[in-house]
Structures
1.
Amino acid sequence: MIIQLEAGISNDRKDKVLNQLQAKKLKLVDVKTQLNHYIVAIGKTDFDLRQIGHLDGIEDIHVVTDTYQLVSKKWKTAPTQISLGDGIFIGDGSLSLMAGPCSIEDEEKTETVARFLAENGVRIMRGGVFKPRSSPYSFRGLGIEGLKMFYSVCRKHGIRIITEVMQVSQIVEMYDYVDVFQVGARNTQNFNLLDELGKVDKPVLIKRGISGSVDELLQSAEYVFSGGNEKLILCERGIRTYETSSRNTLDLNSVPILKDKSHLPVIVDPSHGIGIRDFVEPMALAAVAAGADGIIFEMHQEPEKAASDGAQTLNFEETTQLIRRTRALFDLRSSW
Amino acid sequence: MIIQLEAGISNDRKDKVLNQLQAKKLKLVDVKTQLNHYIVAIGKTDFDLRQIGHLDGIEDIHVVTDTYQLVSKKWKTAPTQISLGDGIFIGDGSLSLMAGPCSIEDEEKTETVARFLAENGVRIMRGGVFKPRSSPYSFRGLGIEGLKMFYSVCRKHGIRIITEVMQVSQIVEMYDYVDVFQVGARNTQNFNLLDELGKVDKPVLIKRGISGSVDELLQSAEYVFSGGNEKLILCERGIRTYETSSRNTLDLNSVPILKDKSHLPVIVDPSHGIGIRDFVEPMALAAVAAGADGIIFEMHQEPEKAASDGAQTLNFEETTQLIRRTRALFDLRSSW
Amino acid sequence: MIIQLEAGISNDRKDKVLNQLQAKKLKLVDVKTQLNHYIVAIGKTDFDLRQIGHLDGIEDIHVVTDTYQLVSKKWKTAPTQISLGDGIFIGDGSLSLMAGPCSIEDEEKTETVARFLAENGVRIMRGGVFKPRSSPYSFRGLGIEGLKMFYSVCRKHGIRIITEVMQVSQIVEMYDYVDVFQVGARNTQNFNLLDELGKVDKPVLIKRGISGSVDELLQSAEYVFSGGNEKLILCERGIRTYETSSRNTLDLNSVPILKDKSHLPVIVDPSHGIGIRDFVEPMALAAVAAGADGIIFEMHQEPEKAASDGAQTLNFEETTQLIRRTRALFDLRSSW
Amino acid sequence: MIIQLEAGISNDRKDKVLNQLQAKKLKLVDVKTQLNHYIVAIGKTDFDLRQIGHLDGIEDIHVVTDTYQLVSKKWKTAPTQISLGDGIFIGDGSLSLMAGPCSIEDEEKTETVARFLAENGVRIMRGGVFKPRSSPYSFRGLGIEGLKMFYSVCRKHGIRIITEVMQVSQIVEMYDYVDVFQVGARNTQNFNLLDELGKVDKPVLIKRGISGSVDELLQSAEYVFSGGNEKLILCERGIRTYETSSRNTLDLNSVPILKDKSHLPVIVDPSHGIGIRDFVEPMALAAVAAGADGIIFEMHQEPEKAASDGAQTLNFEETTQLIRRTRALFDLRSSW
């Protein structure tokens, strides 16, 4: 159950509300985000809501029976819109495109990609500087210095940055150079990281786990929200199945399901999802047709020479075509 | 390796070819379909093809290194088109829509659906009369009498029939009343059934197995093709994964992958794929965006009262919208 | 709900029982096996059983809420014992070992294996003559002539035969030469085959599907039982998962779960389960430790030259050790 | 490739070795563990090893072609033994039993369990104080104060502690109160945590990921080893599959496979693996039969009242029986 408190509720009134709820033997969690103030009450909610709902200081009250609460569409039916400033939004009814290399490489290459994206109206650039790698001997990214360079290049072109944060201690050092923190598929259930991102006032995109369920993704988002950060984006990136003809099994079923269960925007990553360059575009189109709010994909001026993930990375020409077609399809969808 | 023989090759010449190949220690399979004559040669094909290719009576010769041969795009790059007569085609570059109830029920209901489909330009009706059911105590369909009724209703409206065949002995009794034989997901590897369908001159749609791989689907198609029947259609219908928020995991990755590996048309079944009525349309749209040649889906005048699968069945209004939107999306795709 | 009728109940009395049940709006299935007579009633069973239970002609009555009925342990707690004659039993509290090559090859080889098994006290030999193969170009077994040879060799050594039946039409031709019909993993949900095997009076071993659930395996057994054949054996043979370091994922969890849910004996196939020769023994031992009633495994005098599945096939020495150790472990388990 | 350096090699000699290797264009990683000094060389190793192997200061040199190096059995065939002091070993050829509640609760309960374990000869107690939970609203454990209490109780009884560490910052605060750090299934690929545990001189048990492959588990262990810590234990705890009759699918195939691929000890967790109290013992027995070095399982004086995981937790009587039986089975296995 979610009890949304009025802005500026007095401590006195709030205590009264809490006392009333405690009498119902509910477990109470006080959630103060950058935008609102809620009490999440866990437990049996089969009493008459009017007993509480009429109290002064309560703006609204909702019973949510899902395994998650604040990210559920059951209490907030309006879609969440996330502003990155400068007129750049995610979830506002436009198509969000996020593109860039798997790993950030040198400044010249970064500059070339950023300029290309700006020219094509793509205003969010992706690129890893901290890379999770199965083997300790693989390239792990340029680190914080790479991020600073990445940031200064992007700012010049009016482009926002999304990049992966892998551990709690990186949040502070990355903070000034990041527009959207990305939680990778191996960290979807890194609960300490989610807790800390709840304290941050920048948007967080959470990828579905390697074999994470839709409900687990929503529960992970609930961690960040209940930690205080409402600026959340969900990302489908493919799940692990027995099938080996694709790198992962991009699960587009999750798109309408997530849009139905949650008010948060849903982005799809076809690059990791199918993992085969030639098929990134059809999967991107399919994602838009299924109702996604945006696409995040890997591209590079010379995919064959990319530091990582070249086999699923588009070149400029392929990128231009993907952008044009996803936008045309999105326009058709929006006309319905 | 596929050796395509010229039409009307003499036995004498054919024997010469076979002898040449046998000398290479290849395993040879003589495949005579309704349309063509091939020899499939399995084994080491690292010799100089010109030794054989110049022989009289050989039209063409192709090395195929896949685990399947005749269904591979490596030797036949042109897409296979299947004619159902009366100007109805599958795989000819138009969008094929196949719709109807899970199970055929009484004549009146069948008539209502058939008329509705005809009015909306849908010219292939689906409907089961032999139903595979996990439990022996569930409704198993109307059987052959139901099929005869289904057929006579559809013929009146100029509509073609696709329906599931479950075992070898049904092929003969069903033959006169079927336009497309459907092999269900539990029979994808029923090799005896596939063998027999190779002897039939009517099209066969093969569903991907409950947890079948893309390669297994193609190998199952290879059974039918090498048995003599080239009129094949592949169908993605969702795979079994750990995820429980959808009935199955409709795997749209398979669409571009199958289109790349094979010359056969690819149809998608969003109804079984996601299994939730409200999400059938977005998945149908996604399938078209991913490159599918058509959609097969479940609809009924009163889904709530359907004999089976009501939870994933569209009503008439929803069907009309799905038809209109998939066509609009298909038109956009075709314009590229 | 299962209503067990008394042997020799009169038609008159039976009709009375049926009428009583029909009045409750239950769906009734009359099941007459070689051993017993039951009525399976599907539907709401929340009425007072005493209304029916006191009727003459009813031996016993049980409410079973599982998705399967007659194979459930809820109505029959005593384990099912299956006699193959000559003092050979499955499920009687002894350890059943079944061994032999993947495919039956020539008579000499068959003779060598049969003699070896007899000398080691293994009294059931496995071996395929109809082989389900993913590719139509692979070796498909010796067929019915191979079976006749296999049978005559085994009879000489007092050994029973278990072999796979792939389609309905094979049942009759195989009948005289088979002691246990095996339903393979690709046919677990070949419902027509299961129906027909219900009419046979020889035991049937059903393998779990390629990605079949425990409940589906039990429902498939229910098909055969409700068709009239109580002589059923369940077989765990590994499931399909994302893991590629083993051929399949032998799921030993299913052993205690099946033993708890059903009164039928449970056999484990470690050869297909893990698919790696060196690890067949540890998995066989683990299966016995988990509570299996027996083991079915692949062995051959020269695994390297076996017609199929050599990579998971034991030689004679390895077989001797596996037999000795599984028996020692089974003795320890029996002592508890 | 692993180049094991002699203890006390001079910097000068080491540089010579490095120069030789660098000339081969290999990527070199200098690994100094508490026990040994290695250079791991990644890249093409198809040159004549004698060019390097004869150099002074090199103790041994091994080509390892796996995706992991130092944890491979290809260079170190002797099993790794881990001492916890006081004559307590893991991997020394004895059966290691680790038992205790899911979550550490109050001191009295902890004391009762510890005493019971000591009386039964179980010398390692498990119990969580930092609990990873899907939902932010679930009980997350007693934290560091709980650990201190847990530690002081165990030390009194001569019992060692294994408990989960969830994030880097916990390592230091937990260090003095932990004998074995456990990395949970959601953190198997938390690479920063693995890096840091490489710097610790206490043993680390790594659980296989929720849907982690065997190779990924070994690569995660490689992270810790290459970070400097050789005291590693692998743990099979069940994987995620489509099957819902068990909580997870305990994959005992991994036991012989891991023992074959790696020199590290392998422990099995049947409690999380199957997740059903009645079946924990058969799966524990199966694990020992499959070759496991030990078992870690959940038990509690009153499972029905446990703070978490009660449904898979054994009581004292069940624990006593599991201990007696796994030991008897282990003795039988050791006699072979």
2.
Amino acid sequence: MKRILVDMDGVLADVYSRFFDLHEQETGTRLKLSDVSGMLEAEAFKNQINWVTTPGFFRTVPVMEGSVEGLNKLNALYDVVVNSMATEFPLSLTDKQLWMHDHFPFISWKQLVFCGNKSLIRADIMIDDHPKNLDNFTGETLIFTQPHNVFMKDLKHKRVSSWQEIESLLIKNS
Amino acid sequence: MKRILVDMDGVLADVYSRFFDLHEQETGTRLKLSDVSGMLEAEAFKNQINWVTTPGFFRTVPVMEGSVEGLNKLNALYDVVVNSMATEFPLSLTDKQLWMHDHFPFISWKQLVFCGNKSLIRADIMIDDHPKNLDNFTGETLIFTQPHNVFMKDLKHKRVSSWQEIESLLIKNS
């Protein structure tokens, strides 16, 4: 059974949706995806670092559309490991695990890895929204479209823009 | 540079010392190492599961004698990764990272892995007190003596009973 590493933020967790809500609460203006496309998250939202370092933030993020059904299907066919670079924000760790339990209760604690370097983990396939994580991975790589990566060209990773596309690629070919 | 996986509880964190304190606070009796040798932690301390699932517990554990100096030396010679099966206890995650920062500030967030399955991680050497983690590891394995493993014989792992012994083995041969 092939092992697949699935990222949390920007793949399972729709962090932009939460950023748009918080930006609107603070400024009164609702941004659109096109307003922040091609920018890093910290460039697009000047308070982003304050938001993500606030205890409780990661518990409030909505799930990515289609991710619950999609991950459940993958979990039946692959050795799924959900992996987040969470040690960058120590106060996020417990929130992130409780969030996984809230929304993906079929993923056990044995399938979770919170770390600061994804290249430590042995796997066959990686789904992530950040090229920095995918570029050094030796297996099959899928980049999940998010505003910060939408204009990146000539990537050596397959681009997927929805969980339906992930299912089409990985469930037919499992 | 060889990568070395270093366990937290029972290797860097002297959990038995904390268990003895809590047992004495609750019962008035101070146990000795010989009272709990050969028993699993949960057999030796009937409230152990309550203690380790209490938020804040892992922040209060003393460091293992010699571990700060020893890990600092290893960190100069090896690619050190500190690794804990922490997702078994979600409320421990943030406490464990803050504890690392309290006592081992020279270990960065990029060197930490909190997971539920150590066999996911790619490394050359593993130091752990639990044979269940060491048995399936394909590299060099060191078992750190703790009361629960002290009577185990015929292990295929090198036994070390102090951080001085770890230094003798790994610093001379690095």
